[in-house]
Amino acid sequence: MAKTSAERQAAYRSRCNNGEGERRIDTRVSVSIHFALNRLAQRYRVTRRQMLERLVIEDDDAILKTLQIDTPEWDTYLTVTR
Question: How many CA atoms lie within 13 A of 20 on its CB side?
Fold first, then answer.
């Protein structure tokens, strides 16, 4: 019997979550950001995903280095609101 749309979507989501704690991000960005990300990824010969991850991790690490552990600022920064 053919699967329903909901069953196909559930199977797809199950395949995408490979147990490594990955989360999907669906968002729209401006055209300039889209092309900038493509250019950066091409320049560094990585995928757009790898480029985006690199940019986010580098900035997050820089911020974390400025914070002292177990301070209100540390707690505030590490509190995820979404």
Answer: 5
